[in-house]
């Protein structure tokens, strides 16, 4: 994928799905009996249990930007009615394949979505979830359309649970990613009748390294992490404007930040100063 090309969400995510089907099957499967794997960012799936307290046996859930179906299949497997929708046909194909693995009849469960108008009737869900999708919606009008339409399909007092990567200030690490601030999501939510009832920060200093490096080096052209398995362990490469690379061992960085630094940041309540993963739970007050 040429990252210089203008980002077209349909083309981008169709290509992601096609690559997964054609080659890297691991990318397209997840362990439903364990926590389930997200498309890329496995730790992010830890958000699912956070939503459980908002789910009763008869709660009807819609997951927007369902990717490979991790949320939906996890929930159906637990006896909950859940539907998914996504802009990418190829990812929906993977959802159907993954459903088969878990003996779930996928008909009427996964739907194509144009990214603006949800193909569902008004007041038809109790809970809408979305995990690492809104950061890929770089167009501000589309974000507004999404909040507006989620509000339409939700029942009165329904919940909208957003699980997203955020930054202390708006930041585009890549052509297809716009990290917004928590305040930004809160103000869009408010505009469409949502009231934030819970905000949970998960500091991810691992991500902050990209963020701080970008700020320090005055916005490098390209901050796509690159991996290299030649030596048997993964490295992340970050490139600055002078084509210099910063090489980080991803395993070591993960280990140090997740096990040591992240808890300290949480203890000192410094999360909002770092790029972090946040869950925002809104309740709709129509
Ligand atoms: C990082 S994946 C996350 C998938 C899934 N929610 C998960 O946690 O595994 C982002 C998903 O959002 C969808 N998506 C990305 N940009 C979009 C856009 N602008 N409009 C609608 N859907 C989009 C993609 O097709 C993809 O399935």
Total number of domains = 1
Number of helices: 8
- What ions, cofactors and ligands are bound? S-adenosylmethionine
- What is the CATH level 1 assignment? Alpha Beta
- CATH fold type: Rossmann fold
Strand segment count: 11
Instruction: Examine the secondary-structure arrangement and name the CATH architecture.
Output: 3-Layer(aba) Sandwich
Describe this structure in words.
With 286 residues, this protein is of the alpha/beta class. It has one domain: 3-Layer(aba) Sandwich (Rossmann fold), CATH 3.40.50. The chain contains 8 helices and 11 strands. The strands form 3 sheets. It has a 7-stranded mixed beta sheet with strand order 3-2-1-4-5-11-8, sandwiched between helices. A two-stranded antiparallel ribbon has the order 6-7. Helix 4 links the parallel strand 2 and strand 3. The longest helix is centred in the C-terminal third of the chain and has 18 residues, at 250-267. It is globular, with a radius of gyration of 19 Å. The N and C termini lie far apart (42 Å). The structure holds S-adenosylmethionine (SAM). S-adenosylmethionine binds at residues 9, 13, 38-40, 65-68, 70, 86-88, 91, 115, 131-133, 136-137.
């Amino acid at each position: 994928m040429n990252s210089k090309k203008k980002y077209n969400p349909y083309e981008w995510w169709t290509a992601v799905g096609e690559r997964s089907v054609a080659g890297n099957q691991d990318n397209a499967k997840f362990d439903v009996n364990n926590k389930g794997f997200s498309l890329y960012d496995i730790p992010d799936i830890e958000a699912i249990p956070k939503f459980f307290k908002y789910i009763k046996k008869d709660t009807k859930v819609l997951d927007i930007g369902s990717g490979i179906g991790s949320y939906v299949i996890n929930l159906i497997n637990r006896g909950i009615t859940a539907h998914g929708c996504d802009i990418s046909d190829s990812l929906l194909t993977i959802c159907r394949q993954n459903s088969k693995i878990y003996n779930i009849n996928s008909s009427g469960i996964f739907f194509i979505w144009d990214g603006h108008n949800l193909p569902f009737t008004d007041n038809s869900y109790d809970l809408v979830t979305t995990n690492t999708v809104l950061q890929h919606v770089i167009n501000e009008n589309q974000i507004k359309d999404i909040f507006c339409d989620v509000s339409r399909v939700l029942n009165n007092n329904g919940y909208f649970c957003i699980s997203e990567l955020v930054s202390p200030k708006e930041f585009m690490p890549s052509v297809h990613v716009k990290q917004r601030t928590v305040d930004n999501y809160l103000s869009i939510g408010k505009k469409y009748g949502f009231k934030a009832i819970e905000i949970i920060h998960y500091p991810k200093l691992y991500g902050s390294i990209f963020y701080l490096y970008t700020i320090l080096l005055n916005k490098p052209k390209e901050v796509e992490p690159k991996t290299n398995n030649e030596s048997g362990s993964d490295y992340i490469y970050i490139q600055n404007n002078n084509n210099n690379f910063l090489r980080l061992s991803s395993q070591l960085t993960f280990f140090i930040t997740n096990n040591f630094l992240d808890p300290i940041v949480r203890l000192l309540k410094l999360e909002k100063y770092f790029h972090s993963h946040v869950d925002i739970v809104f309740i709709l007050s129509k």
